[in-house]
Structures are given as structure tokens and as C-alpha cells.
Amino acid sequence: MSMHSDIKIWKLTPGQFNQVLQNPGMDLGPPHKIEKPRSIYIPELFPASFGDDHAERVRRGHENRAKKLGKKLISRKSYKQDRAAGMTDEEIAKKYRIKLETLKGYKSQWRKKSAN
Predict the structure, then answer these.
(1) How far apart are CA 14 and CA 12, in angstroms?
(2) How many CB atoms lie within 10 A of CB 92?
(3) How far apart are CA 86 and CA 95, in angstroms?
(4) What does DSSP say about strands 33-35 and 7-9: parallel, antiparallel, or unpaired?
């Protein structure tokens, strides 16, 4: 069973709306529209982290996962050193045990950071 409920929507004129306010529980008839909720947010269940705190948590998570898998994390500095040593992107990806697409994603992030 899903914890999400359908959203029922009635379109009321101002007069009908006033009647509903005066008579709570009044039968409105079938809804004009039924929608599925896009998402649900309950702060007690999903504590949010934002900004620098969130970025730090993500960084630590990446480090911990890499450590468990026996991988070394690649940094912009180590990437530049490997490129200066004549390694191709494919060789660097293999060295750090990551996919080439992941390396391309890191390079894109580094470029965006340096542009800001």
C-alpha cells in the first residue's frame, strides 16, 4: 500500500465556497479533477541538508564508498599530474578504477568550479 494519496480537486464558485465554510462536511459531489502527488516531504522522515553542509556530507560519502571498494579518489591535481606524465583519459580512468564517463563528469565539474 502506498503512503501517497490521490489529490482530489473541486472547482467552486465563491458562493459554493462560502456554503462549504458554513457547513463543514458538506457533500461536494464527485471531484472535478484527481491528480497523483508528485512527491511527499515529511521533515521528520527526510531531514534535509543544504549548502556547504550537504556538499561536505556528499564528499564524505564518496570517500567512504571509495575506501570500501579499495579505490583512490581522483582530484584535479592528481589528474593534471597524470596528464603531464603523458597518460590518456582512458589510462587515468583505469588507474582510478572509474568509468571514462565518470572521469568526464569530474572534468566538467572542475571546469565549472574554476569558471566561478
Answers:
(1) 6
(2) 19
(3) 13
(4) antiparallel
Does the pTM of the predicted model rise above 0.70? no
- Distance between CA atoms of 61 and 55, rounded to whole angstroms? 10
- The answer to whether 72 touches 93, Cβ cutoff 8 Å, is no
Give the whole-angstrom CA distance, residue 87 versus residue 72.
17
Task: Specify the residue for cell string 589510462.
Answer: 91
Mean pLDDT of each 10-residue bin along the chain, 116 residues long: 73 91 88 84 65 78 82 88 96 91 91 81
Would you state the cell numbers that stand for residue 44, as one nine-digit string?
521528520
End-to-end Cα spacing for the chain: 46
